Amino acid sequence: MGGGPRTFPGGLSKWQYKRMHEKLARQKQRGLIRHEKQLYLARLRSEIRASRLPGADAAAPPGEGPTSSRAHIRALADRFRKPGAEDLWNEDDGPLRRAKRPSTSIPPSGQQRQLDSGKPRGGANWKDWEDLALEQPRPRMEAGAGGKGPGLAAFNPKREYRTVAPWWSHWNAPSLGFFGPKRCYSVMSPCTVSWQLGVGLRPLGAGGLAKARNGTDETALALFNQERLYSVAARRFGRKWRPDSSDEDEEGATTPKRNLRFGKFGASSEEDSESDESGDTSTIRRRWSSAALRNCDMKKERRVLKSYEEESNDLAGRIRELREEIKNREVLGTERRRYESRGESLLTSKRFDECGISPLTVKALADAGYVQTTVVQEAALPICLEGKDVLIKAKTGTGKSAAFLLPAIESVLNGMKSNTNHRVSPIFALVLCPTRELAIQLTAEANVLLKYHKGIGVQSLIGGTRFKLDQRRLESDPCQILVATPGRLLDHIENKSSFSVRLMGLKLLVLDEADHLLDLGFCKDIEKIVDSLPRQRQTLLFSATIPKEVRRVSQLVLKRDHVFVDTVGLGAVETPTKVQQSCLVVLHELHFHMVHRLLLEHIDREVDYKVIVFCTTAMVTEFMYIMLRDLKLNVREIHSRKPQLYRTRISEEFRDSNRLILVTSDVSTRGVNYPDVTLVIQVGAPPDREHYIHRLGRTGREGKSGKGILLLAPWEEYFLNEIGDLPVEKHTAPDIDQEIKQKVDDSIKIVDMSIKEAAYHAWLGYYNSIADIGRDKTMLADLANRFGASIGLEKPPAIYRKTALKMGLKDVPGIRIRK
Ligand SMILES: Nc1ncnc2c1ncn2[C@@H]1O[C@H](COP(=O)(O)OP(=O)(O)OP(=O)(O)O)[C@@H](O)[C@H]1O
Predict the structure, then answer these.
(1) Distance (Å) from CA 432 to ligand 1 centroid
(2) Is 0.90 exceeded by the ipTM?
(3) Is the CB of 373 under 6 A from ligand 1?
C-alpha cells in the first residue's frame, strides 16, 4: 500500500505533509502572478513615460514596435495559463490605453537633458544621474548604431535575451558609460528607444570601455559582438549584474522579482544584503513619478544601490579586468567561427586534459573517443567548474550532455573530499530532464565518464518503474549522481524522508532541456523539487532553445549573478547548419500516403537510412506505426502509451541500428541521441517553434548532415510564420500515384477500430489545444471529422459530455456527445 514512511518531517502525516506542500505551491503561484501584475504596471509606467519623452515615435512599425498593453497582459495570461489572469487588472492601476506619443523626431541632446522635470542634467550630482537613469530608456546596442540607441524600427524583440548587451550598451553609450551595472534597473521600455544624451554627461570621460579600447563608438559596438562575450561581465561584477535586465524592460521589475525570489526559493543572506533600500533615492523617485503619473506610479519599494558610489570608484580597475576577459573570450569566439565557417566539426582545439577536470575522467573520455572539447563544452566548462550558476544555449547535438556531466562528476569529487562523516552518502549532483529516454541515456553517458571512478555511482529515477525497486536500488547501490524525471523524483521526495535527507548534501543541480522543464507542464513540479533542495548549490540550465518566457522563469532557479552562455550567437540560425529543411503542404487526408511515399523515396536513395517520423499524439503515432508496418516497412514505435521496458528496448535498438524507421511522439523530441539519423519527418504542425527545432535536432548531430521534412495541411500553414527565420524551403508536394494510394488505403483499413477512435479523440484534443486552430470550434470539428473519415471512421466517434465541456466543444455542430 503506497510504500513510504508513515510520518514525515515535523511529525506530519503523509497527507498533512502533502497538503502543506500544496499550500506552499499555491502561495508561490499567487506570488508569481502578483509579480506579473507588477511587471505589467511597470510596463505601463514606462510606456507612459516613453510617450512623454520628446522624440518618442508616434507609431511603431507593425510587428517591430512595443507590445501593446493589451497584448502584454494577454501574454501574461498565456504565460500562466490562467484565463482569469486578465482580472489582475483593476481600475486603480491606471489607464489601460496607451498614451499618445508627442513627436517622432529625436530631440537635440541638450533638450533631451532637460527631460520632464525641467531640471538641467549637466552636473555630476549623483542624484541627478540616478534620476536620469530612471527616466531614460536604457540604450540598446545595435551594430552600426553609431553609439546611438536604435530607433523603434530597429527594435527587435528577438534580441532581448542576449548575453550582456543590455548593460554593455551602457558602456558603449556615449553618455551612460559611467552607470554601474547595478543601474540596469532603470526605466527601459521597448517603446522608449530614443536616447541621445550629451557626451558631456560622462563622469568617466573616456567614452566607456568600448571607446577606450577602440577609439570610436562604431568599432566599440562591433567589438561587443554577442558571440564573443559569454557573459564575461557577469562574472566580473558578480551579483551586481542582472541578466534579466535585458528582457525586462520594465523599471519596476526588480523589486517584485526580488520578493518573488525570496517567496519562492528563498534567498541567501548575500541577496538579502543587496536588497536594501535607500530612502533618499526612493523619495526622489516617487516625487518625480507622482508628479508625472499620479497614482499610476506609486510604487513605494525600489531596489536602490547601497554601495553605488563606493563601487564606481573602483570602476577603472574593473574595466581593466573586463578588457582582459574580453580578450580571452575573443579567442574563443574566433575559434568557434572558424570551425563553423568551415562547416567541418564542432570540435575546438581545446583538449579535455586542459580543462582542469580529474585525470580519471579524462582517461574515461579518451576511452570513449572524446579528446577535444566541442564549442559548448569549451565555453561552459570553465564557468561551470568555477561554481557559477549558468544558463547555456547551444544547438542540438553539440555535446551539451558532457558539458554538464563533467562538472557533475567534479562536484561529486569535491563533495566527497569535504563530506567524510556521512552515514549515507549524499546525492551531490542531480540532473533533471523531461523524458525517461533522455534520463536513461544520460545515466549511460555518466557511467561511461565514471569508468575509472570507483565508488561513485549514477542512477536514474524515472516513471514507469516500480517505486519500491527504485528505493531498494537507491539504498543498496552507490548514487552520488542522480538523473531523474521530475514526477518520479517528486514522489520520492514526498514519500521518503531519508531520500530528502540525502538530497540535503546536494552541490549541483542541472536542468537539461531547461526550457521544457521550466514551461508550464513541469514548472510546478520543478518548484517543489527546488524547494526541497539546499539553497547553497550551483545550478546549471541547458537547452537548445530558450524562449523569452523561460528566460524569465529561469531566474527563479538561478542565482542573480548567473552567467548566460549563448553559443548559438546573435542572429544565427538555431538549427544545425548541415540539415536541409523543407516543408510540404498537403491535404491532411493525404498525410499518411505522403509519409509512405517520402519514406520509399528516402529508402531508395539512402542505403543506410535511419528515419524518425514525429506524429502529433501517441495514438496517431500508434495508428501510423500499424499502417506502415502493414506496408512492410522496417518500422518501430515509441510513445507514452507503451510500457517503459518496451520503450527502452526500442530506443536502444534504434540507437544501435540503421535501415530502420522510428515512429514516435514527442517523448523522443528532446535530447535523445540517436546517431546518424538521415531524415526527420514531422507530420502536422508541431506545438511550437521549440518543438520543431528539437525534433529536427535528432538529425544532423555532431555537425553531420541530415534532412528534415515538415508536412503540413493547408490550414496549418500559419506555423510557417513561427519558423520564418529558419532556412525552411517550401516545396511542391510530389503526386501520389493511384497504386500507392490504394495500398495505403488498404493498410488503413486493417487498423483496429478502437485505435482509429482513440486517434480521432487524440487528434481533436491536440488541435483544440493549439490556439491558431482550436479557437474556431466549428472549423475544428469539421477538420477532425475529415481526419476521422480519412482514417476510415464512417462517423465521428462520440466524446464524453464532460470532455466536450472541458474542451469547449459542447453544442458544436459535428461533435457527437456520448449518451
Ligand atoms: N567532445 C566530444 N568529442 C566527440 N564527440 C562528442 C563530444 N561531445 C559530445 N560528443 C558526441 O556528440 C553527440 C551529441 O552529444 P549530446 O547528446 O550531448 O548533444 P546535445 O547537445 O545534448 O543534444 P540535444 O540538444 O539534442 O540534447 C553524442 O553522440 C556525443 O557522443
Answers:
(1) 17
(2) yes
(3) yes
